[in-house]
Protein: ABC transporter substrate-binding protein
Organism: Streptomyces rochei
Amino acid sequence: MRFRTVAAVTGALALSLVTGCAQGAGSSADTVTYWLWDTNQLPAYQACAEDFEKQNPGLDVEISQLGWDDYWTKLTASFIAGTQPDVFTDHIQKFGQFADLQVLEPLDDLGIDDSDYQPGLAASWLGEDGRRYGVPKDWDTVALFYNEKMVKDAGLDAADLNDLAWNPEDGGTFEKAIARLTVDEQGRRGDEPGFDKDNVKVYGLATNGGGDGDGQTTWSHFAASAGWTYTGKERWGTEYRYDDDTFQSMIEWYFGLADKGYMAPFTDYSVSNQANTQVAAGTAATAFDGAWMLSTYDGFEGVDFGTAVTPAGPTGKRATMMNGLADSVSKDARNKAGALKWVKYLASEECQRTVGGYGIVFPATPDGTEAAVAAYEKKGIDVSAFTRPVEDKENFRTFSYPITNYAADVQALMRPAMQDVYGGGRPVSSLDETNDQINLILDQ
């Protein structure tokens, strides 16, 4: 068995990975190259690779791990240079672009059955042509992380945070809770007389930036619980709806929390100071974040955290984006036969249970999810705020990233537009023009 892992980070080392993969074009036919970006998941997939190799003598898996930003830069460059991996971890936000570039191998012959995975995960990887280009890998939802001590000091508890509701008029009980958790430099809370919004010591809610065009861990759950959808179709919509009154009233209220001093200002957000960092530093009491961050929050020294479900909205339902990653095969994979075998194994119950047992992510199959929940419980981590939305369709709405063509262009336009509304003082109505520009691109 010849199992290898290649780690890559920023700068010259990441560049050398692409160079190394170019050399890999001459690799023996028994090697399957596989790329992923999450270092926390690397040990789990090493274990899957070892099992796969035992079952397939003569086939070896070579895993390369890169950081998120480098990953997509190098992956795109590899398709151009002909140095692409045989198999790679795919993101639904990037799927449309790769499908449009025709660099993905159809996977219809693998016999993937939607019913074998959590609802909706498999269907998200069907292209406009109806063919499958990804096999379900894992899933995540979003919940409210909170500092347990700060919540207790504010006179609140877990039951309070799991029973919050919001509306765009006065913010509902959610805004009241966030105000209560906010403390200025003089120790006055956001709901107390004399509160100084310009000199805040602890914000009730951390910031994850403007949210770009999807708002996954910022405003998406508010928008969805108000009944809004990104486009007019669940998948492959042709017109975005950022000009919708429901969306804009929600955005005006949400970013208005920063104007009131309850949410950290846009200037507090950076790549090195994301919401989780703000909670760890004690400058924010709560943060909306994804299930993939559970291990990160659990690792904070001196901070005990809890999680609560997202607040109910005007529709009466709670909502959360349910994102699901997949494994895709490059159309020009050097070892296509081996790549297809590896991808099918990655989506199997056997590998899914193995990954679940590491307690770092929720695998796509129900059994894999069950194994992950048990593993998290052994670590003392309650994950019910993330699993409840998947189990309780009566009270929760789950939804996907917007799946459309020209996703990169949409993000390129929405990122500065949302930042201008959040931190630049532009009116929310300015999104009308951005929406027109986006729909003009989609109409090409």
User: Anything to note?
Assistant: Residues 407-423 form the longest helix (17 residues). Residues 352 and 368 are 5 Å apart (CA to CA).
